[in-house]
C-alpha cells in the first residue's frame, strides 16, 4: 500500500498525541493491519477522470465568456455568466435536480453521436424574453402556459446562442449544434437510461436583478469518441504545436481580405457643452487644421498616411502623399 506523505504540522500533531497518551501506538498498528474497504455505488459510475472534468470546465468557461458577450449585445443589458460547477452524475439525478417545469433545449452535435440538453431556468428565460420584447428584463414564471410566439422567440434566441458552443469546442472537436427539440417538462425527455452517466456543467447567470442557472447535460456517449482529447497530455501537446503551412497561408489570406475603416480626418475642434447645445443649422465650426497642411488618414483608428483632399470624377477624394512612419500622430 502506498504511504501517505504527511506535512510537518501533521507529524508534530501525531508525535504530540502519542506523547500525551491521546493516541495508542498499538491501536494505530492494529488499524493499519485492518483492510480498508471503500463503498462503490454502481448506479453512480464514474466514467470521467478529474483531469477530464477539469478540461470540460475550461472549455465551458470559454463558452460562458462567449455567452456573456452574445447576450449582452443581444439583450442590451447587464449580463454575467460563469461556470459554477461541473459534475458527473446519473441522468436520473439530473432530471430530479431541475424544476418540474422549465425550458429544455435538445441539441445534436453532428458529427458526434447522441444529443445534449441545455436547461435554462424559467426566471432567466423569461427575463431574456422580456428584454427581447422591449421590456426591462422582468421575470414572470409561467412556463407551463408558453404561447406559440413565446416558444418561437425563445427557441430562436437559444439556438443562436449555442452557435458559440461551436467556437468553444474547437479545441476538441468540430461540431455543428442543431436544435432538435424544445420542451418544458423534463418527464417527457426519455433520452437516456436513468443510470447513464452524464456530465452537468452549471452556469451561474445574472441578468440585471434576475439570477438563475443554465445547466448543460452532456451524456457519456457524446464525449466517448473524443475522451483522449480531454486529457492534460493532449492539451500540453496542442500548446506547443506549431501551425501547419496551410494554416499559416489561410490565416494570411484571411488577414489580407479583412475590412478596415479608412477615415480622412479634416481636423478637430474643442467645444464646451454650452456651445455644443447652442449649435444650429448653418453654424460654422473652426477646425485646428490649416488649409495648407496635409490631413491625417486613419486606418482602423490608427494614423497611417498624410494626404490632401480633392476631387476625382466629380466626387470628393483624398490623395495619399506620404506614409506616417511608426504610426505617430501629426502634431504639426
TrEMBL record:
Where in the cell?
Cell membrane; Bacterial flagellum basal body
Q: How does it sit in the membrane?
A: Peripheral membrane protein
Please name the Gene3D superfamilies in this protein's record: CheC-like, SpoA-like
Please report the stretch or stretches of sequence annotated as the Flagellar motor switch protein FliN-like C-terminal domain.
254-324
Q: Name one Pfam family in it.
A: FliMN_C
Could you confirm whether the keyword Membrane appears in this record? Answer: yes
Its family remark reads:
Belongs to the FliM family.
PANTHER family per UniProt = FLAGELLAR MOTOR SWITCH PROTEIN FLIM (PTHR30034), YOP PROTEINS TRANSLOCATION PROTEIN Q (PTHR30034:SF6)
Described purpose of this protein according to its UniProt entry? One of the proteins that forms a switch complex that is proposed to be located at the base of the basal body. This complex interacts with chemotaxis proteins (such as CheY) in addition to contacting components of the motor that determine the direction of flagellar rotation.
- Would you tell me the protein name for this molecule? Flagellar motor switch protein FliM
User: Which taxonomic lineage does the organism of this UniProt entry have?
Assistant: Bacteria, Bacillati, Bacillota, Bacilli, Bacillales
